[in-house]
Amino acid sequence: MRNGWASRMFKSWSFQRKLLVYSLLLSIMPVLTVGLIASYIASTSIQSEVDQNHRYMLNRMQVQLNQFMNSIHTNSIYIATNLAVEKSVREGPGIDNLTASLEMNETIRRIRSTSPVRFDVTIMYKRFNNFAYSNKFTAQQLDQLRALTILDKMNPKENEPVVVPAGTFDDQEDMLLFRPVPIQSSYTDGVLILHVNPEDILQFVGSMEHGYGTRVVVADENGRIVISSKRGEMGRMLNDVILPADKGKAGASAAVGLSGLSGLVKIGAEGYKVQTEESDTNGWTYIAITPMKELTAQSNRIQLTTWIVVGLLVLFWAALAAVGTRRMYVPIKRLTDRLLPRQRPERPSRRDGLADLGDYVEQLADANRQLHHRLSEQFPYLRQGIFHQLLRGEMSERELSVAAEHANMTLDGEFVFVCVAEADDIPTFDSTYREKDRALIHYALLKMLEETFHGVPFCAGFTPKTGQVVLLVGMDADSAEAKESLRKRADEARRHVRDYFNFAISIAIGSPLQAFTAIGKGYEEAIALLGHRFIVGEDRTITADQADEGLMRLSRETGETQKRIVHYVLHGNMDDSRKLLAGLVVELRQAQIQPETAMGLFSYMLGELDYMLQQSGCDIRQAAGIDMYRKLHGLRSLPELERWLADELFPAVKAHLAAESVSRQTKTIREVMNYVQQHVDEELSLQKVADRFALSVSYLSKLFKDESGVNFSDFVMELRMGKAREWLVHTDMPIKDIADKIGYASVQNFNRVFKQWSGLPPGEFRKGQRHAPG
Asked: Which superkingdom does the taxonomy of this entry point to (predicted)?
């Protein structure tokens, strides 16, 4: 109730009063913002300093502790590999082996005296009833330490050394390092144990506590604390000492990985900031811990100061805003008078003068909605264009993102499947539906497919050519369940088409793609799968993973052969097209497919030829002079079909294309020659001219040679050399300037080419022409 009353009261205020409130807030907000930002910067600066200190401490601690551990391991290796120690362990204790025992004792004393770190040594003779030698502990003390029991619990692998942090087991005050003797054995003969007092480690690495209350803790790869300034924490698991800040009491016993310790943690009831660094040498983790109360103290003081300053400024700005709002309201009144001059004189004036401006803005909003509605009507055509560009591979990921946003289209799904639905009998479809009817049929077929595939993350389709619809389906996974769902929807769509239309379709579902920009590849795969229907039959749903490899190979090879035949025919290569056609006929005979399937295969090839001719502006009916599909279905055998294609249809198409292209080719080459003559003084290359006339390099080179009788490079050189010859004979222009004018980057290059062309260097040619008789 109170909120509703406050809202109604605020709405009843005049604009000038609202402006007063807003002005007051705007006056206070900068100060408040600056104070809070200063507080944030101070806190961030302190935390950044602490982070740097953390990194420095962790690096220093890592170096020092690595030195300490390297020294310990090195000393243990010296002892374990010493011949006297190995001999003593091998021969055993006793008066008979007193010499070996004395040598071992002297060796251990010498190594301990020269070591930069302090440690005690124990050697267990496992082969001699676990007899123990120690420079510090008595036999009873060693029994209490249960060293071999600890070693068995650590379960060492082969002869690897084992480090056991202090406090890991009850009554274990020292850090223990186990190593077998001899060193290549598997703890079967003797065991070397180095006892290291944690106080000696702390004395070696230095203080573990620093400014801001920061201290360092070291844990091994299993999460057990190795070194800490607090002896009670050594040997305990990190989970029992440190918890992430978001863990409650219920999660106190849960296992927390070392990666979960980054950021804010709790030790007891207090919060701490933690930074970790893992050692590459032994896998230990070095952890720096700083109390959060030390980091936020200065920030809290800045916030308190900020609020005090804001309170003082409120009194000052309240008076200033009351005067300033009167002047600030003047532009609003001027805007109202300018946009709406006496538009509704019969209407009573409002106190704040904004009602008419509100009506005017609503009119603009209505006009904007109408424009948006008209634009939305154009979205389907825009989407069709986007899909066609994707099919041709003409759009990058960035361009697709921008175009999809403009077309109000969201491309959902981690994977995209390309589904191609095509009428099984294209000739009948083409003859049954005229051009206007085909558009309606395509639209109805597309809508039926989109409704059938409704419910997937993304579904949209388009019609690339007659009798064919491409559907793009976005899915969140490429699992077997997702593929089975697509196959069932495709089967349902084919049933709907049989029920409501007078033709049947086959649907091919390509492999999952990870980007919409790759649908061109998926489309090619789906088309290859559709070619498979001519072997397994029509009215089918064909998927990439369900197709038989042998049949798919035949389908793919047949489809590739068809495309090559069409390519050769369009380029006038009758010999190769006849050879491929003969090979295709032989392959189909060996495959022993049904006659209807073979007929459908050649019908599909004629459809491809028809489509490619339409793209070049030609009509296959005009080229052949007959109804091809009727002629095709009137043939009775494959040899008869081969003779008709090779001897009648293909030559007729070649002649028709030649007649259509001669005039265009001649005109194109004339334009190219004019362009070269006008730009002979520039750097000219076949690639540059091909780009200028939107032609491929190979096609322009062949076309130029066929039409002009010379190569493009020879034509350019002849033109340039002719101009150079005229300038050399009739002018005193320096040779360097002549080289520049005809597009050569260096005089040496021009001299070389001119000598090859005329037989003489430019200077000698000019001199010879000047002194020639006449």
From this structure: Bacteria
- DSSP annotation of 649: I
Integer Cα distance of 119 and 577 in angstroms: 89
Overall pTM > 0.70: no
Backbone angles phi and psi of 318, in degrees to 5? -60, -45
468 CB neighbour count, 10 Å cutoff? 21
In the three-class reduction of DSSP (H, G, I as helix; E, B as strand; rest coil), residue 187 is classed as coil
CA torsion through residues 66, 67, 72, 75, sign: positive
Measured distance CA(583)–CA(561) in Å, rounded: 9
Q: Residue 237's beta-bridge partner residues?
A: 224
State residue 539 phi and psi, 5-degree precision: 55, 55
Q: Where are the domains of the chain?
A: 49-293, 548-646, 679-771
Q: How far apart, in whole angstroms, are the C-alpha atoms of residue 542 and residue 483?
A: 11
Nearest Cα neighbor of 469 from 538, 527, 518, 517 is 527
Strand partners, 453: none
DSSP class of residue 92? Answer: -
Q: Which two tokens stand for residue 508?
A: 């091919």
For the record, the structure tokens of 71 come out as: 């020294």
Give the number of other CB atoms < 10 A from CB of residue 483: 20
Q: Of the candidates 567, 563, 572, 568, which has an alpha carbon nearest to the alpha carbon of residue 662?
A: 572
* pLDDT score of 501: 83
Q: Report CA Rg, the chain.
A: 45
CA–CA distance, 671 with 673 (Å, rounded to integer): 5
Per DSSP, the three-state class of 433 is coil
Going by their DSSP bridges, the two strands 415-423 and 263-267 should be labelled as unpaired
Task: Specify the amino acid at residue 507.
Answer: I
Burial of 204 (0-12, 13-18, 19+ CB in 10 A): middle
For residue 321 the two structure tokens come to: 């805003």
DSSP assignment of 301-347 equals: HHHHHHHHHHHHHHHHHHHHHHHHHHHHTHHHHHHHHHHSTTS-TTS
d(CA 590, CA 726): 69
- In whole angstroms, what is the distance from residue 20 CA to residue 746 CA? 76
All residues at 6 or more sequence positions from 576 whose CB lies less than 8 Å from its CB, including other chains? 564, 568
DSSP for 119-177 reads -EEEEEEGGGTTEEEESS--HHHHHHHTHHHHHHHH---TT--EEE-TTSSTT--SEEE
Give the integer Cα–Cα distance in Å for 272 and 250: 20
Number of residues that this document lists for the chain: 774
Distance of alpha carbon 433 from alpha carbon 658, whole angstroms: 31
Q: Is 214 helix (H, G, I), strand (E, B) or coil?
A: coil
* 195 SS3 class: strand
Task: Name the nearest CA neighbour of 358 among 376, 334, 340.
Answer: 340
Residue corresponding to tokens 């709790």 = 266
Q: pLDDT averaged over consecutive 10-residue blocks of the chain (774 residues)? A: 59 64 72 74 74 77 82 88 86 78 86 88 87 84 81 84 85 86 86 87 68 76 78 76 57 45 70 78 79 71 75 72 64 69 49 62 76 69 79 80 80 88 80 77 86 87 85 88 89 88 86 86 83 66 66 63 83 85 79 65 78 69 70 74 83 76 70 82 81 82 81 85 85 86 82 86 83 60
Tell me which CATH homologous superfamily contains domain 679-771: Homeodomain-like (1.10.10.60)
Beta bridge partners of 290: 273
* Side chain identity, residue 760: L
pLDDT of amino acid 180: 92
The residue to which tokens 């389709």 are assigned: 461
